[in-house]
Amino acid sequence: MQIFFSICILALSIFAFDLLGREFCISCRFKPVLPERICIGFFLYFSHFQIVAECLILTKQKLHVLTVVWIIVLLILLGLSGICVYMIQEVKPAGYEMVFSKRKVRPTAAACLLLAVMAAAIVCECVSAVLMQRNIGWDFAYYIGNMTTSVATDTMYLYDGSSGLLRNHLEMRYALSAFYMNTAWISQITGISALVLQKYMMGILCVLLTNAVVYSFAMEVFHRDQRKAAVLVTITIILTVFWDVYDTTAQFLLLRNYEAKAYCANVVLPMVCYLMYRIWKNGRDLRIWAELFLVAFASVPVSMSSLVLVPALIGLMVLAHLIVERRWDAEFVKHGVLCMMPNVCYFAVYFASTKGWLIVEV
Hints:
single chain; 362 residues; mainly alpha; 0% strand; globular
C-alpha cells in the first residue's frame, strides 16, 4: 500500500510540476513541449521550496514547521498558477494568437507507433531502475538515514544520518540543499516511510525527468519532429540499460536514481546543456536566459553536486561564444554571469563554512 500511495504522490507531483510550468511559460510567453514544461515546473518547485526550507533549516526549526509552512506556500503557488492559466485561457492578451495559437498538426500513424514504443521503453526503464537500485553502501545508508532520522526526531539535518547522533553544528555540505527534506515532509504528513518514498517516488521521477529532457532536446534539434525525437529517446534508453560501466550517468540513473547525484547527472546538467544549445543558436532571446537562470537557481536545491558544475558549464559557454565571435559581447557576458550568481553565492557560503568562518551551532 505504501508503494501504491507513493506512485499516487508521484502522479500528483507531476501534475503540480505541469501547472507551475504552464504558469512560467505563460509569463515568459513561449510554448515548449509538454515534457520540457514539466521539467520547468520541477525546477520552479524546488527553487521556491529551497527559499522556504533554508530559512527554517538555518534557524534550526522543527520539520513539522516546514511541513505546515510549505503546504501553505505550495497551495498559494498552485492557486495563483491555476488562476493565471485560467485567466490566460479566458482573456487572451495582444499577441496571444501568434505565440500560443499555432495550428496543431495531428501526429501520423508512424509517429503514434514510435511514441508508443518510446512510452513502453520508458516504462521498462522505470521498472529496471526500481529492480536494479543499489541497497548497500555508505551513501545509501546516510541519505536514507538522514531522512528517516529527520522524520523520527522532527528535526532537519541536526542528527547524523549514519550514526543517529546529534551534531555539534550544521553540516553545510548537506544543509545547503533541501532536496532530501522534500521527501521528509511528505513522509511526515502521509505516514509513508521515507525509504519507500525516496526509492519509488523520487527514483521513478528521476527516470521520467531524464527522458523528458532528452525528448525536449531532440524536439529542438529535429525541429519538433516527433518521430525522430521518439527514436532518439528509445535509443538512449537502450544504451542506458546496457551501458554497465562504473560511475557513469547510466549507472547513476539505474542503480542510484534516488540520490541527488543522479538528478545532477541525468536531469540538471543535461537541462543546462539543452538550454545552452538554444542560447548558442539565439542568444538574444531573454526567455531562454530566464529558463537557464531558473535551472541554475534550482540546481543546488536539487543537488549539491551542481555547486561548481553548473557555473563551470555556463562559464565555458560564455568563453566559447567570445572566442568564436571574436568580439566582446557585453550582453551575453552579463546574462551568463547573472545565471552563475546563485551557485557562486552558495559556493561562498559553503567555502566560509569549510574555513570555520560560518558555523551554525546545534
